[in-house]
Design a protein that fits this description.
Blueprint (H helix, E strand, L loop, with lengths): L1 E4 L6 H4 L1 E4 L9 E11 L1 H8 L4 H7 L12 E9 L11 E5 L15 E5 L3 E3 L6 H5 L2 H14 L7 E5 L4 H12 L3 E6 L4 H6 L4 E4 L12 E6 L6 H7 E9 L16 H10 L16 H13 L7 E6 L3 H10 L5 E5 L1
Parallel strand pairs: 8-9, 8-11, 9-10, 11-12, 13-14
Antiparallel strand pairs: 1-2, 3-4, 3-6, 3-14, 4-5, 5-7
Helix pairs in contact: 5-6, 5-10
The chain binds NADP nicotinamide-adenine-dinucleotide phosphate.
NADP nicotinamide-adenine-dinucleotide phosphate binds next to helix 2, helix 5, helix 6 and strand 9.
Amino acid sequence: MRAIVQDKYGSPDDVLELREIEKPVVEDDEVLVHVRAASVHPDVWHVVTGRPYILRLMGAGVFRPKNPIPGTDVAGIVESVGKDVTRFGPGDEVFGETRMEHQWQNGGAYAEYVSVPQDVLALKPNGITFEQAASVPTSGFIALQNLQGGGQIQPGQRVLINGAGGGVGTIAVQLAKAYGAHVTGVDNTEKMEMILSLGADHVIDYTQEDFTQRDERYDLILDVASNLSLTACKRVLMPNGVYILIGHDHYGDATGPIFGSLPRFLMLSALSPFVSQIPDMNFSLLSKGEAMAVLAGFIEVGKLTPIIDRTYPLEEVHETMRYLQWGRPHGKIIITP
Ligand SMILES: NC(=O)c1ccc[n+]([C@@H]2O[C@H](COP(=O)([O-])OP(=O)(O)OC[C@H]3O[C@@H](n4cnc5c(N)ncnc54)[C@H](OP(=O)(O)O)[C@@H]3O)[C@@H](O)[C@H]2O)c1
């Protein structure tokens, strides 16, 4: 099969190659998916470059990637199944992340076929394309678990999504609306119209205005762009409001090369028993399979429409990764075999 392969960590232009390799073999609890689309997001960049370095010790592979094929989100058609698989059969259209673990490791999705544990997949919702389905898993999981788990979102709350026009933000805006919140989206000038079209009640252009200096107060701030300080956010949070950091490293520009955003997460975690506006970081998580089913439900009833900026073929993986880093995409980027 054709696949993008990396034998070492480094710049995407230097280390990513399109090659012919063997098709994966399914384990007993795995499903072989004929890939129709995979998504391109900041965590793919992190694992390709091996930065921050700590991710190499967190399962990605110390000296080189354990799995040489990037990509963690997939949509496609089941080709065959392992002997213990009960939930899917050949011909099913599925979507989901490709691994049970966190996103800081390669998942094998940038290929014609990928072998995936059945527990992380769900049936692809009707009425959306494979490209749209592939755009949802990682971003949708982050948006859902942080709004629902960390944020304990409630109807009628005033929710601000900082970085509302990117991969996580375009889903978070729609989920927050689906949960009955009043939603403000913050992003750059060119994304204002799109964010309003997703259902946001209000938008703020970060290039023109600093929302932390305004009079409005929020029950929940979801900081996807991760450029805000807790002190600035406390000024515009209700006394019982919460601040949630997502941890965007801006491709190494915003954080250090060794630990990335981890020191900020650790600091917030240490402060959370003393600062009411920081949620307990040990909130219970949905499993990935459960999260996919919840997200599929929102898509089926029309409350979540995945937003694709553009789609590239595997052959253009270098252009794809450059567009991710510098193209300022509206929503998600997709790559197809
Ligand atoms: N916490 C978790 O559970 C978890 C788990 C896995 C991954 N992550 C992290 O989550 C992040 C996901 O991000 P994503 O895919 O949504 O990224 P993205 O597509 O790059 O979106 C970020 C958005 O923020 C905007 N932005 C940039 N600077 C801003 C500012 N100063 N104020 C407001 N908005 C600003 C960007 O717009 P411009 O076009 O202007 O730059 C962009 O629209 C990744 O970094 C990933 O590593 C978190």
